[in-house]
Amino acid sequence: MAKKDQTYKSALNEQDGVTPPESLSPDSAKTIKANRKKQPSIEDLVSGITSGDISALSRAITMVESTNLAHTKKANEIITACLTYANKSIRIGITGVPGVGKSTFIEAFGIHLTNLGKKVAVLAVDPSSSLSKGSILGDKTRMEDLVKDKNAFIRPSASGDSLGGVARKTRETIILCEAAGFDTIIIETVGVGQSETAVHSMVDFFLLLKLAGAGDELQGIKRGIIEMADAIVINKADGDNIKAAKSAKLEFNRALHLYPEKDSQWSPKVSLCSALKQEGISEVWEMIKDYESTTKANHYFETNRNNQNKFWLLQTIEERLKSNFYNSAKIKNELQSQIDLVESGKTTPFAAAEYLLSL
Questions:
Q1: What 3 state SS string does the chain have?
Q2: 245-293: pLDDT as tens digits
Q3: Alpha-carbon distance 283 to 315, whole Å?
Q4: Which residues pair with 125 in a beta bridge?
Q5: What is the pLDDT of residues 199-229, one digit of tens each?
Q6: Measuring CA to CA, how many Å separate 337 from each of 303, 340, 354?
């Protein structure tokens, strides 16, 4: 009996496709492919940034965020060229626990500012997964009205493993945004309780968003957060929550009086707002303007920025030393063997560290 044909055609087999009609001339296709491969020069990017080209700004920020050494070198040159045009903005840090309504507040606040003729850049930091290292980067989705505003620029970035999602790269991005003509820079942090120090070291005004009636009042009394905050804004002060919001405002005002006067000679304020109903937003901006005029008059504004520059100089040195250490060929060869010795109990973590540092 003849054997049956054992060859089967799977539905997964690749079939011959249908050749599409020529809708693009070969010359045009060649030009498009050439332009895709073409990378703009440093001069082109700097020229684009300083003339307000958002595409050039986005490309430069991507280069700043890249870990590629070649990109880092180009990014440093771009930033150096843009320094002349920087430092002409008010930098505002906004933090708060997840769920406090940071994105809704920033959108309402940003739209208020653009209506006043301001150019607003929002550097929104999205939490990264500790497992997949991925990030949703959903801030543009949550700020759907602001993202369509021609006087606003929203740049979501993954936090990575940096403290609270803010690091040297965020600071460099501020410089690029200022060079592009943005006069108000807003930095939204992850809001996980660890980012306050990092964001405070790169902004002029530090705003803490709070909730009432959510057990959040105690958080406001924590010394470190209170000492850094230039203003506490209680969000979602609407509907049935208004009474609780007013009560929370009273509590926060009492807490603020427990602390000594700031070097800025500014007394932190507490205000209520409803970002959803766009109430109390203009009062927040007036408060920030009062702060700016007060600190510029007593020269704290400039002194604070100089101190921040010194801080970031030291931070950059530390980061570079750490990066050079782990990228060293000797360290790469010896690190795992020292880890194995520590795990087997043949050496201590301190002795292993001393040995690796001696290399």
A1: CCCCCCCCCCCCCCCCCCCCCCCCCHHHHHHHHHHHHCCCCHHHHHHHHHCCCHHHHHHHHHHHHCCCHHHHHHHHHHHHHHHHHCCCCEEEEEECCCCCCHHHHHHHHHHHHHHCCCCEEEEEEECCCCCCCCCCCCHHHHCCCHHHCCCEEEEEEECCCCHHHCCHHHHHHHHHHHHCCCCEEEEECCCCCCCHHHHHCCCCEEEEEECCCCCCHHHHCCHHHHHHCCEEEECCCCHHHHHHHHHHHHHHHHHHCCCCCCCCCCCCEEEECECCCCECHHHHHHHHHHHHHHHHHCCHHHHHHHHHHHHHHHHHHHHHHHHHHHHCHHHHHHHHHHHHHHHCCCCCHHHHHHHHHHC
A2: 999 899 888 888 888 888 899 999 999 999 989 899 999 999 999 999 9
A3: 35
A4: 157
A5: 788 899 999 998 886 654 555 445 667 778 8
A6: 48, 5, 14
| Residue 163: pLDDT band with limits 50, 70, 90 | very low
CA atoms of 202 and 165, how far apart (whole Å): 13
Is the pTM above the cut of 0.85?
A: no
What residues contact 59, with CB distance under 8 A and at least 6 apart? 40, 45
| Structure-token pair, residue 54 | 């958002």
Angle of the 281-297 helix axis to the 300-327 helix axis, nearest 10? 100
Residue 40 confidence (pLDDT): 85
Closest by CA position to 289, among listed 332, 208, 229, 230: 230
Residue 192 binned pLDDT confidence (cut-offs 50, 70, 90):
low
Q: Which residue has the tokens 């010194």?
A: 310
Q: What does pLDDT average to over the chain?
A: 83
